[in-house]
Design goal:
There is one protein chain. A seven-stranded mixed beta sheet has the order 6-7-8-3-9-10-11, sandwiched between helices. Strands 2-1-4-5 form a four-stranded antiparallel beta sheet, covered by helices on one side. The radius of gyration is 19 Å and the shape is globular. It is α/β, with parallel strands linked by helices. The longest helix is centred in the middle third of the chain and has 18 residues. It contains seven helices and eleven strands. It is 32% helix and 25% strand. β9 and β10 form a beta hairpin. It has a single domain, classed as Rossmann fold (3-Layer(aba) Sandwich).
Length: 266
C-alpha cells in the first residue's frame, strides 16, 4: 500500500493565469478522498497533474511505499464521459487497458467481472448498443481492472439520472472495498461526497488551495439518501454557508497557507 503526497506550490497556464497555489495534502493508503470546489477552481487540472497528463508545475507529486521509498504508481482514471472506443466491443475496450502478458489471464474472467457490475453477457456488444448508465459501468470496471494504486475520478456520474447514479455509487463502493485503491473523487455535490468518501477536501476559488479538510466518520455502507448524510450536509452548510463557493465563514478564514481541519461524527 502506498500514500500519495501532493505539494503544489504553483500551477499556471501558458497565458499566465494561476490555477493552483500552495495546495498540499497527503492521501493515506486505501483512503477515499472527495474533492469539492467552485467551477474553475482547477479540480480537473489537479487530477491531470497527478495522472501525469500535465507535468508543468512548481512542486511535487509523489507516491511513497510503506518503506518510505518513492514508487511508480499504477493509476486508473475515470473521466466525466465514458470515453469508450465506439469501434471496439465492450470486451475489447476492457482488454485494451491491460498489459499484453495480463490480457490472456484476464480475458477468461472478463465475463465474470461484467456480471459483477451488472452487465452479464454484454462483452460482445458495442458502446452504441449500451445505455449511458451501462457505458459508465464499463468505464468503472475498466478503471478497476488495471488494479490501480490510485484511482482518479472526475465527476464520473454527473450526467446520469438520480437512480442510475445512486446504483453506480453503490457499485463503486463495492469495488473499492474489494481492492482498496487510494481514490481521489472530484464532485460538485456535497451529498455525493458525504455518501462515498472518508474525507473531503474543500478548495478555494482560483488559485485553488485546500481551505477545509473534513473527515467523514459515517458508518458504511451508506447512500446519498441516508438520514445521517442529510443531517451532516445540513450541519456543514449551516457552519459554512459559502463553502461550496470556495469560502469559509469569516470567523474561520485563515491565511492562504493554512487549512482548517474538522471531524464530524453522526
Amino acid at each position: 500500500m502506498n500514500s500519495l503526497t501532493i505539494d503544489i506550490r504553483k500551477k499556471a497556464y501558458p497565458n499566465g493565469c494561476c490555477a493552483i497555489e500552495n495546495l498540499a495534502f497527503t492521501a493515506q493508503p486505501g483512503e477515499f478522498v472527495a474533492i469539492i470546489g467552485p467551477s474553475g477552481a482547477g479540480k480537473t487540472t489537479l487530477l491531470n497533474l497527478i495522472a501525469g497528463l500535465d507535468r508543468k508545475l512548481e512542486g511535487s507529486i509523489a507516491l511513497h511505499s510503506e518503506a518510505g521509498t518513492q514508487a511508480a504508481p499504477t493509476i486508473g482514471f475515470m473521466f466525466q464521459e465514458p470515453r469508450l472506443m465506439p469501434w471496439l466491443t465492450v470486451q475489447q475496450n476492457l482488454e485494451m487497458v491491460l498489459a499484453p502478458h495480463a490480457r490472456a489471464q484476464q480475458t477468461a474472467s472478463l465475463q465474470d467481472l461484467l456480471a459483477l457490475v451488472g452487465l452479464p453477457g454484454c462483452g460482445a456488444l458495442f458502446p452504441g448498443q449500451l445505455s449511458g448508465g451501462m457505458q459508465r459501468r464499463v468505464a468503472l470496471l475498466r478503471a478497476f481492472i488495471v488494479e490501480p494504486d490510485v484511482l482518479l475520478m472526475d465527476e464520473p456520474f454527473q450526467s446520469l439520472d438520480a437512480p442510475t447514479a445512486s446504483q453506480l455509487r453503490v457499485l463503486l463502493q463495492d469495488l473499492w472495498q474489494r481492492t482498496r485503491p487510494t481514490v481521489l473523487f472530484v464532485t460538485h455535490s456535497l451529498r455525493e461526497a458525504l455518501s462515498v468518501a472518508d474525507r473531503i477536501l474543500f478548495l478555494s476559488s482560483r488559485p485553488s488551495r485546500v481551505i477545509l479538510d473534513f473527515a467523514v466518520e459515517l458508518r458504511r455502507p451508506r447512500t446519498i439518501e441516508d438520514m445521517a448524510v442529510q443531517k451532516l450536509h445540513t450541519s456543514l452548510l449551516e457552519q459554512h454557508p459559502q463553502l461550496l463557493e470556495g469560502r469559509l465563514s469569516p470567523t474561520q478564514e485563515k491565511a492562504p497557507s493554512d487549512t482548517v481541519l474538522q471531524t464530524a461524527k453522526y
